[in-house]
Each structure stands twice: as structure tokens, then as C-alpha cells.
Amino acid sequence: MNATGQSAVFGRRKEPHTVIIARGNEIRHFTIRPWLAAFIGSALAAIAIGYLLATSYLVLRDDLIGATTARQARMQQAYEDRISALRAQVDRITSRQLLDQQLMETKVSELLARQTQLSQRHGRLGPLLERAENDVGTVPAEDPAAAKPDKRAEVTGSINVPAQNYAVASLSADLGTADTRPFSLWSTRTDPLPSDSAADRADRLFVSINQSLKSIENDQLSRISTLADNAYKSADAIQQALQAAGLPVDGDFGKNESDVGGPLIPLDSSMIFDSKVKELDEALDTLDQLKKEARRLPLANPAPGHSVTSPFGVRTDPILGTAALHSGMDFRAPIGMAARVTAPGVVTKAGWNGGYGRMVEIDHGNGFATRYGHLSEIDVTVGEKVDAGAIIGKTGSSGRSTGPHLHYEVRHNGEAIDPLRFLTVGRKVAQYL
Fold first, then answer.
1. Could you tell me the residue ranges of all domains in the chain?
2. How many CA atoms lie within 13 A of 236 on its CB side?
3. Which terminal CB of the chain, N or C, has fewer other CB atoms within 10 Å?
4. Could you say which of 3.40.50.720, 3.20.20.140, 3.30.1310.20, 2.70.70.10 is the CATH number of the domain covering 308-429?
5. What are the tens digits of pLDDT across the range 34-69?
6. How far is the CA of 406 from the CAs of 305, 336, 368, in angstroms?
7. pLDDT band at 196; cut points 50, 70, 90
8. Are strands 313-316 and 358-365 parallel, antiparallel or unpaired?
9. Reported pTM
10. Residue 198: CA atoms inside 13 Å, Cβ hemisphere, count?
């Protein structure tokens, strides 16, 4: 065995470290292995590090706890601020929706009031417009309103459209598209209120509906004004025709009162409508009065389509051949043609009357009377009331006559008047009657 502890196979071998402890006569020793030394050193290092860490933790614990608490407080404050902002945004949206709802209810109430007003006007206008259409008839061609289509369907029919239902339905559909997405308290959504809100869309819708209702109202007023103007024009035409012929008319009609005055009081729409309706009603009353007066006058042609063989005035007597006054007009007519009365009245004579032969006389009132002579047949009796156009007999050649014809006279207070004046006026006012 090698004294130096070398191995023949593996070469030189190091001897482990030996620790010798001497105490008096006692000597102790032990061998320190490398792995044991490494283990002991690692243990000591771990203990030292653990001690240092524990000491550091104990020293810095309060600071760590304070920092953690502060960070949590900052996070909580941020969350609370975010919650407050979202709540404020929700409150703004809720307030806007409430305002939108109040606005919609207000606008719908206004529309209901307007629609109710138009419906009430329709109830008043229905009979009046029916009367105006029957009395006034079509608009004269020279009137610019003649080129426009008949507005009556719009004036009287359009207001029956349930505007409030349309408004509510449209608003429901329109407001239904508003932004109703739910808000999350922890979301990061920060988009503002929609720029085109439901109130804006509803307001535009109400403006459109109000414009439609206003258009209907304007059409009503325009139609009333047009009918009133036409009624006055018709009345003027009848009056002028009667006055030009020297026939009596109501002297109070068309009298302008220029000496007037009073304070200026602005009118609202209802007062304007009432004044227009009153004006139309007065115009129709005036026109009715003139029509009644004109219809009582013998303005119709007793033998329409038949030529005049002898006019009113001085002529050569057909039998004697001398100058004589012809008190009426002779219309060529075959024997047996129906003789019709030219205005309503009462039969005062019906029978043979000298040179007239078979004659019928009709009293039309106000001193006017008409005579129908040389009839071959009389179909009425004295005292009988007849209407304009009624058949009073048949034409012939009875009495002082040279051939079949109809002798027609117009008399006022017993005096014979040229019937041509009445026939001319009748042709002028026929379109108004």
C-alpha cells in the first residue's frame, strides 16, 4: 500500500479533510466530507437569506400594506367615478326620453285639436258646400281658379284622414328606432347622446303633419273664398242683366258702405274661418234671392228652337194691310205643339178671348203677366198654379190668325212690353239659374 495514499489504478487520490480537536489528554478528530461541507454551507446561506428576508419583511411590511391599500383605494375610486359617470349618462338619457315623451304627447294633443277643429269645420262646411256647388255651379273660365282641379274632395274629404292615428303610428315607429342599447356599469362605452334624437325626428314628423293640416285648412278657406266670389259674380251678372233690361231688382243688393270704421282687432284662424263661412253664406243668400227674383220673371223662351215670324212693335197688319201695333211676338209653330209657360204663376184667364182666339194668361206677381194666344187646345183652368215649363195647351191658329203659330206677350201692370228684352236677359242669366 502506498504511504502517500496514491492509487495505482486512478492516480493520485486526495485525502479528505480531518479536523483534530485536542483537549487535555483527549484528542478527537472527524473527517469533513466535501458534500457535507457544501450542504452545511447551503444551509447556513439559506438561513441567512431567510433571516434577512424576514427582517426586511418585518421592517417593510407597513409600507407594503399601505401601498397595497392605496392602490386598492385608487382602483375603487376609479370604479366609483366610472359608475357616477355612467349613472349621470343614464339620467341624461332618461331625462331626454321623458322630454321626448312629453313633447310627443304635446304635439299629439295639438294634432288632435287641429283634427277635431277640421272635423267640426267639415260638419259645418258639408251642407254649405253642397248648397254652394248646386247654386254657384262651375267656376267661370276667366277665373284663374278654373284651371285648378276641384278641391272639394280635398276640402271635405281630406280632413276625415285620422291624422292623430297617423301621427301616433309614425311616432311609434320613429321613436322605436331610438338608441335603447343597455348600459353596463363596468363597460368602457362613452359615446354621447345620438345627435339625431327621437325628439328631433318626432319634431320633423309633426312639422310635416302640421303642414298637411295647414294645407287642408288653407284649401278650405280658399275654396270658401272662391265659392263666395263666384256667388257674388253670379249675383252681379244677374243683377246687371236685369238692370240693363230695365227689370226690377232689389236695390239694397251690392250697396257698398264706404263710411265705416272701428278699432283694428287681429283675427285668429277660427275667426277667419267663421268670417269666411259667414261671407259665403251671405253671398249664397244674396244669390238665392236674386235667383228667386229672376225665376219669377218670364225670362224663358216659350218656343225654344222656333223662329220668330213677327216681332213686337209697329207692323203691317196681316189682314187689313195697314200699320198696327203688334203687342207680342209670333213664333212659328205647328198645330198641336206643346205651349209651355215661361215662369211660375197663377192662371188668370183660360178660354176664348176675341182676336187672341183660345188664350191663356198667367199672373207672375209684381205686376208681370204673360199671354199665350191662338191655341188649339187649353189644358189649364183659371186659378191653377203652374211652374215654369209647365204645358198650358197646344199651339194652333184660332182667333185672328193667318196660320198656325204661338202668339206670346209680356205685360207689366197691363202694359205690353217687348218680350225680346226678357228673352235676351234669359239667355244671359240662364247659366246662373
1. 105-177+198-249+269-296, 308-429
2. 8
3. N
4. 2.70.70.10
5. 787 788 889 999 999 999 988 888 888 788 888 888
6. 13, 11, 19
7. low
8. unpaired
9. 0.53
10. 23
